[in-house]
Fold this protein.
Amino acid sequence: MDCGELEANLTDFLEGVLDADAEAAALEHLATCERCESVLTQTRSVIALANRHGRVELAPDERNDLLRRILAEADGPP
């Protein structure tokens, strides 16, 4: 699995619905990719924050913007 595949499957990974092979590939990638580990950590933080403050439904463009910001932060300063 590469970074793009992990990003595309991040929600399924977090929800535990990937098949065993895909989950193993995701875990293997996360073990070697600091960027994706950072994205995962930040995404989990956002989920925990949302859980503490109640569920908020985001429009698709808002979800995409949030993911874009998380990915940009994981990539570091330009």
